[in-house]
Each structure stands twice: as C-alpha cells, then as structure tokens.
C-alpha cells in the first residue's frame, strides 16, 4: 500500500512524503529532476523495504520557507524527518544531488540512524581532474547528450511540453540553483571528511554519464573506508531509469547485505 502524507518538520516546513512497503527503512532522495525521476525505483524497492520518498522543499510546487536556502538546510531537515518518523537502521539512496545529501546526512548522523548509503551518479565532493559539468550552461539537446546513454530516446524538446509541465521543470531548476548557491554542485569541504563515514557505501554509476564521470564516481567510493564502486553499462546519469532492473537489483542486494542484524524475541 502506498500513502502520501505530510511531515511537519518545522512549524513553517511541511515535507511531502510518499510511503510504501514494509521492512528495513529506505530513504530515497531525488536529484534536480524531481521526485518523478525516482518514483519507479521507489516503487520497486517497496517490494523489499519500507520506502520513504520525500519531495525536496520547493520542488513540484511544494512549500519552501524564505530561510531555507542551501544544501545544509536540506540535510538537516531530512535528519529531523527521520527522527520525527521514528526511523532506524536506514539505508539512504540518493540520486545525483540526492547522493550529496545522503553523504552529508551520514556525516552528521550522530544518533546512528543511518546504517548504509547508496550513491547513484552522485554529485558532491570536489575531485581534482574531474569537473562536474555545469548542467545549467547546456541547452536541452546538450543536456540529453550529457545525461543519457541513449539521448535520442530521452531528449524532450521544451517547445513540445504543455505549459504547466514546462513551468514545473523550470521552477524545479530555479529551486536547485538557489539551494546550490547558484548551481555549485560540489563542496571543497566534503571529500576530506568522508573518511568519517564508516557505514557501508555502494556507489552505483551509469558508465555513459558525462555530467559526472565514472572516474569521479570511483574517487567517491575510494574516499569511504567501506566504499564499493559498481559501474552500470548502457546507462548515463540516471541508471535507475535507463537500466532500471540492474540498478534496483544492486540496491536490493545492498539492502539485504547491510544494516543492523535483528534479534528475534523468544
């Protein structure tokens, strides 16, 4: 059963949340494209776990207070959301910007609620020699060429979109630009701190990504004490869409492999 509800994280910040499935908690964090980009993955993972899929404040027309202006605000809000929902033994799965949120959440999770991470073509640290492409500087065709293994299949001409859908996409991009300090997708402070994240970390990477390269992803994985890098052929920046079954199977295996062993009463 899937339910949609709102968690009042702060008095002026309601967070829209989709909840489905049972078992170990899985928090799925979307990237700049919005919650629709991870909806299919979340539905698949709900067959194996208790999946929470929030909408980042400001995306898809959801409320965002004026003071809510950066990545730190997102990270803190999601840690508080996990606390407010009583979650424990959480696997956090983050796509693109969501992966950066996942890593920064793990760094600040002093309560030990998060017990595993899956980063899917995630932006985050600054890595020498591996620049993250400025997505905002690309025209729609170039965005498709950089993002997809098969750009002809996924490219959408904005001129063909209904006005409401075009407005939604533009508003989402404006919110992402605001919360990332004008489109700054990386942090110089993140990489040196990742050694503090001792949970298991699976880094899944579409091999054809030209926004953030596989070499960038491999460097992410090496920065964690317990990090593993798994490339996904035939996929770009969103392997959970282009190679949905392969990506979901990798995450499902991580869900089973990691976490806190449960002690049965009796």
What's the arrangement of secondary structure elements?
Elements: E1 2-10, E2 13-20, E3 25-29, H1 36-45, E4 50-54, H2 71-84, E5 90-95, H3 97-108, E6 114-120, H4 140-147, H5 151-154, H6 163-179, E7 201-206, H7 214-223, E8 227-232, H8 239-242, H9 244-257
Parallel strand pairs: 3-4, 3-5, 5-6, 6-7, 7-8
Antiparallel strand pairs: 1-2, 2-4
Radius of gyration: 17 Å
Give a count of the beta strands, DSSP E runs of length 2 or more. Answer: 8
Low-confidence stretches: none
Topology pattern, helix = H, strand = E: EEEHEHEHEHHHEHEHH
Q: Please report which band the strand proportion falls in: under 5%, 5-15%, 15-25%, 25-35%, 35-45% or over 45%.
A: 15-25%
Tell me the strand order in the biggest sheet. 1-2-4-3-5-6-7-8
Which quaternary structure do these chains form? Answer: single chain
The profile of the biggest β sheet is: 8 strands, mixed
Distance between the termini: 30 Å
**How many H/I helices?**
9
Class computed from helices, strands and strand pairing: alpha/beta
Shape: globular
Indicate the mean pLDDT: 95
Explain what this protein looks like in three dimensions.
The protein is an alpha/beta fold and 266 residues long. 35% of the residues lie in helices and 20% in strands. Strands 1-2-4-3-5-6-7-8 form an eight-stranded mixed sheet, sandwiched between helices. Strand 5, helix 3 and strand 6 form a beta-alpha-beta unit. Helix 2 crosses helix 3. The chain is globular and about 50 Å long. The model has no long low-confidence stretch (mean pLDDT 95).
């Amino acid at each position: 059963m899937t339910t949609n509800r709102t968690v009042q994280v702060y008095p002026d910040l309601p967070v829209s949340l989709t909840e489905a499935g049972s078992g170990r908690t899985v928090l799925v964090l979307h990237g700049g494209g919005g919650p629709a980009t991870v909806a299919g993955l979340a539905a698949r993972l709900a067959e194996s776990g208790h999946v929470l899929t929030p909408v980042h404040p400001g995306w898809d027309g959801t409320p965002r207070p004026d003071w809510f202006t950066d990545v730190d605000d997102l990270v803190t809000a999601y840690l508080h959301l996990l606390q407010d929902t009583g979650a424990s033994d959480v696997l956090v799965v983050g796509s693109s910007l969501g992966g950066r949120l996942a890593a920064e959440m793990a760094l600040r999770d002093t309560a030990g609620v998060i017990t595993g991470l899956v980063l899917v073509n995630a932006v985050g640290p600054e890595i020498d020699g591996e620049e993250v492409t400025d997505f905002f500087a690309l025209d729609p065709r170039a965005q498709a060429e950089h993002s997809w293994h098969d750009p002809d299949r996924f490219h959408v001409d904005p001129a063909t979109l209904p006005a409401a859908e075009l407005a939604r996409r533009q508003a989402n991009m404006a919110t992402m630009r605001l919360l990332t300090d004008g489109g700054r997708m990386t942090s110089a402070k993140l990489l040196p701190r990742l050694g503090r994240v001792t949970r298991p970390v699976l880094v899944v990477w579409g091999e054809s990504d030209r926004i953030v390269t596989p070499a960038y992803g491999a460097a992410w994985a090496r920065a964690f004490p317990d990090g593993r890098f798994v490339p996904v052929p035939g996929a770009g920046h969103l392997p959970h869409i282009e190679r949905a079954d392969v990506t979901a199977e990798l995450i499902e295996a991580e869900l089973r492999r990691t976490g806190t062993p449960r002690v049965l009463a009796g």
